Fold:
Amino acid sequence: MVEHGDIRVVHRGGSKINFREPVITNDSKFLLCASGECVKVFSTSTEECLHDLRGHTDLVTGVIIKPSNHLQAYSCSADGTVRLWDFTDGILIKTYVIGHPIYSIHASASHEGVVFVVTSMHADKRPDLLQLVAVHLPRSGDQMVEARELSAVLSDVSSNPLAIAFGRGGEFIASAKGLQLEVYIFRKQKAYRFFLKEDNKKGGRNTFTCVACHPKDDCIATGHEDGKIRLWRNFNQKKEYTYSTLHWHHSAVSSLCFTPEGTNLLSGGIESVLVQWRYNQEDQREFLPRLGAAITHIAVSPDGSLFFTSHSDNKITIIQSCLKVSAAIQGLVKGENVTTDLMMDPRSKSLVLNGKPGHLQFYSLQRDKLLYNLDVVQQEYIHESGLQQFEVVKAAFDASGTWLATVEERKQKGAEVELNLKLWEFDEQTQSFVLNTTISAPHEAQITDMCFCHSTDNQTTMLVSTSKDGHFKAWQLDAQAHTEADERPSWSCDFVGAYHSLVPECCCFSADGSLLAVSFQEVVTVWSTASWELLTTLSQPPKAIRNLCFGRLSCSKYLLGTTGNNLLCCWNLLTCSLEWSTSMDVSLLLADPISENMAAFCRQAGSTDLFVFKPSEPRPLFSQKAVCPGKVTRAIFAPREEMLESCEESSQWLNRSQLYFLTQHMDLMTFTTKVEEDRLMASSKQLVIDDSVAMTPFYLLLGKHRQQDSRDAQSISAERTPLPQGSVAIKELLQTPAHVLPSTSFLCSMFVQSLLISVTDPREEDKATEEEMESEKEEEDSEEEMESGTTRPEQAPLGRQAAESAAPALTKAQVRELRRVKKLDRSWFAGLLDS
Structure:
């Protein structure tokens, strides 16, 4: 077993963008959100990801805009650092080392040079005891600075950043945890604590969930587990404090946010409804329902024109202040688990898996963006815990991407499982999948596996499903069996198979579609798809077969399977015998559809190892220990659009396909070569600025002049040197923010010299050109006279003719340049020699 260091495991997308509250820039053009170990910068107008701010080595736990500079942002991470970014250009400016894991970060304009972080200062004594600490950021020119001046503000605070908020421009800070609300007033240097009973008289749960402070009044809004909102006043007088109660949510309030002017209060929860309360007129409220999933965070742009809501389905919704949805930024939907396999849509080349309840999501791997959702269940999802609803559990594509099969089921206590098998046909006109056939109760028990016959030679499309009822069924598309009223093709059951009343677990078609392998517990049966005759059976020691996979191309004669007693077996179908077997705990086995390669993920000591091999060769092509902690749940080989040109033998298995896999934490990972990763990093570091966004007023002021100058230069002469404003250096100088540029004195001389260009009167240039043309004409005439007056011998030696024929002919431009050189005055050189 050889491990190769040239191949590395990298994060390829799918990170959560709803982990923390989204941050909006002052001009409302950018949206920043924590996403795994990086910070993503989105455009609010195009919803595209403009930058990935990478530098943290652990989970990013908070992002805020720097109060004194709206073009910079702070981010904190569990790696114990606070980093300062220029998010418009994606540049890391400075790193402040705190030395302790940071759970959230806060800042206020009234506390310049100070950020407030939640961290554990006494990890040895009580790691769960968190403190709100004021960090004084040192002023230094170094890239990495250690922040040593720390002062505790509040003790025993929550790790949830929604439970801490500044009020009245930083005059006080409120923190809620459990049943306690604590308010610290900076002017008095004093903290006030308020307690609630665990349950009220009506049985409501009073536990605090979130906090928001009014921007202008002494008012604190708190959300609670029973769905109530309390507005606290007079909290600077502990004995005279009061609070009023608002109630609409039937479950816990997840987030609260005041508008910048304080006229409205926004709230959200599991109901996926945004509620807008009028401040001091709480009986007047407006609703924006059916936002798709539970609301986890609410944010408002600094000008109050846009609202932003994060949702549990990894989505950020952009809402206008009139409560109208304008756009949505959708990431890879993170459910509790992936019930379907990872699939590739042959048409869109997108990754397909189950997303939000009752849907399939089509996710672009290249753009790291959700393309669209397919509503499979076609029923409104009710957000209520304990309610059993239909869920998509299986899905499969045919080879051309024309047909999609889905299985949905609903489990009910004390009742049989409800099953629906649906066949979807791709419509060329609408460019979407349209429901063709619905089969209610295709089996009497749960469906364990389903697959299409991927052979392109077969005239008919075939689907096989296996079930716990002890049968497998072959569904066949009969394109001829349609009536005049319905011209669409129909599906019918072509065959029902069983083997000794055993339960089938998995099935797989051969590459040419002539064989079907179905595992019945510890027995593998091989069937002929033409006659549905049982050809042979392959048995192993008594343990159930968990995976089945046929070889591809030159290895199509092999059938591989994994067993419950940690065996990987390879059968030769030509001899119907066991070719080889090895002992390993394979959790996932899959084949590359366009090569002979196969991948096996093996569990080992709390982590997962990877082995890439060919069934015909005993030595693996690639192996890597501990590709990720925990178990790999799903994986897939995705064909590349452009084949890589890798010379390393260890990485040639990545030339035509790329291997993606999902970890137990729902992170989408992939394998890439060092050369490929370096090329991607180099391209991401290039400064790419869209003219439609992030325009500075200085750039807009000079943009019109630059365009006008370029048009004038083109109209005067095509060969004329372009104006310096069009150069790359000047463009970067005008577009780069001033706070990251060198001093003005350093740039002034170079900038002024670049603006100095030689200007010549067009009339003088025309006159000089005419004189030059006249002199050239006179020289040509004189040369012709000399050639006519000279008599040449009729025959020349053969050597001279060969030399003349071998000499290359000069172009007109070269002849003209040669004449110019002849005219040069070299008298100064003669005078130099005489001296």
